[in-house]
Amino acid sequence: MDGYRKELAKVKNELKDVGEQIQQLLEHQDQLERRKHELEALFRQNSSKSAQEDKQWDRSDFPWSKELEDKMKSVFKIQTLRPMQLQTMNVTLSNKDCMLIMPTGGGKSLCFHLPALLSKGVTLVVSPLVALMEDQIMALLKFNVAAEMLNASTNKDTIKRVQEEMVSHNAPLKLLYVTPEKLAKSKRFMAKLEKMYQLGRFSRLVIDEVHCCSQWGHDFRPDYKFLGIMKRQFPQVPILCLTATATSKVLEDVKKILNIPNCYVFKASFNRPNLYYEVREKSGVQTEAMDEIYKLIQNQFPNQSGIVYCFSKKEADDVTTELTRRGIKVGCYHADLMAVERSRVHQAWLADKIHVVVATVAFGMGIDKPDVRFVIHNSLSKSMENLYQESGRAGRDDKKSHCILFYRLQDVFKQSSMVFTEQTGLENLYGIVAYCIDANRCRRSVIASHFGEVWDKAHCNGMCDHCDPAKQKSTQNKDVTKYCQDVLTVLDHAKRLDQRLTAIKVLESWMQKGPVNMRVKGVEAPSSNILTLERILAYMLIQGYIKEDFHFTPYSTISYLVPGPKAKLLSMGLENVTMDFFSCSNQTNGASPAASSSIHLEPKVKKSLPTTSALNPLKPKLVIINNERSAFSDMKFADSTVANYNGNKDNHSLTNGEGDHSTQKGGIIISDKRTGKKLKKRKQAIVYSDESDIDDMDFGANILTTKPNRAKKALQDKSYPSNSTQDTTTNADAIFLDSDSDFG
Ligand SMILES: Nc1ncnc2c1ncn2[C@H]1C[C@H](O)[C@@H](COP(=O)(O)OP(=O)(O)OP(=O)(O)O)O1
């Protein structure tokens, strides 16, 4: 026996060592990964080869340089080129393959419009959306540039005419737009292209939104894969690829798919200095969430142009109804609406007849309104690329504009059950979740590292909620290991009972709410607000301590939470989890999820202060306020007696609920405001607090407890009609308020 015991102790020790080593290695791996990204970016930006190449293509002494400048000014009325435009045009005019990554609105179109005018023959442009082509053709026709398009709904006469122009030396046609489907599915059209090529009239192939080729990208389109044969069929035709967003992984994939391994890659900076990035917490109550968006638009952007992006068509319909009811001129745009209605909304918005378009991502590519002052995300986007591209529709006129994302944990699962079948769907989604719950990193630096760029926080210029001096707040790194272990215990308990838990159910069990059999002995209800708990859960998810397990019903896909690959390390106590929290919570409205999830010295978690309106439903007979630390001390409780407790048991003041004070020496004397009578000794009073220093105070109550769950139990024992903490609070005879009180 002794031998076993010794060996067991030895094995446990070794396991502990191994765990610590694993943790160190994991941390080291994280650091190396980060450094690798930075070095790759630095390498790309500074390597002598790429610097030389940039210089080489920046020249103005090419045979076409003079004509290029003339046409730029005379046809497109543009005086100077933006960064990377000249390089790109010089490469493609040299008949070399090129890839340009430039942010939305950066001016990619000019990079093939202008070369098209300087080249003999026709530039073929593959573009994913008919609406996008229509917009471009309209703009080109205004500049008297001959452009056409072919798609599934083009009539026979037009097809015939265009196909004749493709192969006619005298035809004025300069740009021909087609959908990838047209290329992939029309053999006749491919035959015409062959002919055009043999006649030397196929001057260039432009592939817009080229990231659609790659399954690693955020908008994979299977028909884009077909473009892989173009280099083989037309080896002399230079390919120009354009996209606003592509990670290095996507770039490499695209090069492979299109057979252009040696193409030149130009990358304009992702940074849009005039865009202010912000994440705000979204209320769990639909009407409150709508009120907040309404107030935001009304107060900050009155009569200004903006877009509100929604997760689904139904959400877009609902938000449209809600905002219209509140008096904002909005139009709705999504794929289920008739084309005429979509076009009506788009045109009315362009003409400023309506200010806001509430839309799904269907309202996107090709939106070129210069004065969009705000883009609000009512729900989480599915990736950083999506967020960047969608919010990038703001501020094309280079004036300050706002990109505000409303975040709530429940939106993660709406998205995850849609994207989990995509190759990197969950990875991309968790990337944007990390962006949302980050407490202090510059938003731009998170975006930059996502796109593999080096970013110096100082360059943000206060243009994100974390760098804005007006929103200054300090953060503290706190240990949340115990919380994370408790979550895993809840999951283990459910597993033993053969139950599956969604995130909401996990939170419920963790907070000792919901079905009694799901609550776990030894797991104490955390004294923190729901937002903090959601944030910890989200962090566990993106770090791999928990993971999602998807199940199908005939109507939907449900995401359950189960222990993740790193769970073991945590439950064995071999890994510590720390998170950043704001050290003071002086923000209420508009705070980011991180901001409102401030945390005390563990294990206690602090929450944002509820507003007066949040407390209005509470009408207990007695309200005891911690005067020293509470922001509630100025609040009025019309139907309650208010006792101001200042941490000194012997000196308290009482008010009549309307703010008239009378100081009482020698302990609290509680009287009922309505009758003026002293509350009877042993009157029931439930006190919610974690403050241990009230433990031994005599409130004349026969129930005094310091934990909400114990209070609740006490209430249940006394047969109070309540099923939730909120109800018990409402029904309590007395509540204790300090800055940590929890109304979750
Ligand atoms: N050098 C320039 N100087 C002034 N304006 C320019 C210049 N180049 C382009 N523009 C204008 C034309 C458009 O109104 C606007 C956006 O250009 P555009 O080519 O549509 O952007 P883009 O194609 O990169 O955006 P998206 O990714 O949304 O398609 O900028």
UniProtKB/TrEMBL annotation:
Reactions this protein catalyses:
dATP + H2O = dADP + phosphate + H(+); ATP + H2O = ADP + phosphate + H(+); Couples ATP hydrolysis with the unwinding of duplex DNA by translocating in the 3'-5' direction
- List required co-factors: Mg(2+); Zn(2+); Mn(2+)
Where do the segments described as Disordered lie? 708-744
Q: List each copy of the Helicase C-terminal domain by range.
A: 289-440
Give the InterPro entries listed for this entry.
Answer: DEAD/DEAH_box_helicase_dom, DNA/RNA_helicase_DEAH_CS, DNA_helicase_ATP-dep_RecQ, Helicase_ATP-bd, Helicase_C-like, P-loop_NTPase, RecQ_Zn-bd, WH-like_DNA-bd_sf
Compositional bias of type Polar residues: which residue ranges?
719-732
Give the UniProt entry's GO cellular component terms: chromosome; cytoplasm; nucleus
Query: Which family would the database say this protein is a member of?
Result: Belongs to the helicase family. RecQ subfamily.
* Stated name of the protein: ATP-dependent DNA helicase
**Which species?**
Potamilus streckersoni
| Phylogenetic placement of the source organism | Eukaryota, Metazoa, Spiralia, Lophotrochozoa, Mollusca
